[in-house]
Write a structure and sequence with these properties.
Strands 1, 2, 5, 6, 7 and 9 form a six-stranded mixed β-sheet that branches. Strands 3-4 form a two-stranded antiparallel sheet. The protein has a two-stranded antiparallel ribbon with strand order 8-10. It has no helices and ten strands. The protein has one domain (about 1-110). It has about 110 residues and is mainly β.
Amino acid sequence: MFSLQDRANVLSQQTLSTGADITFTLAVERDASGRVLGKFAMGAPAQRFLYICSGASAGQFGTCWTRRPKISLMNLPGAALLEGEIQGRSKDGGPACATVPLLRGGWVGTRS
């Protein structure tokens, strides 16, 4: 099970993995000084990130996994619709955890 976690520790968009790609949709904004805002934007203003929970931390019962990769929201391009991709599986075969890099060179602007 995977889900987004907001600043109030509420889980959103819970999705059971089938092995195929999983997509989460969320909104972020920038204030006048360029800081990233939104209910999923975590951390200090100069180091915003989001959490994707997995296993027990995503609400799945009966699993030994409880992980939460941290994905940077810094260096977002100016596009209205963005896509970021991570490797969802860790070297130990379980779900990704800790700070994970974005693949394909980071956030990519896409067409709506």
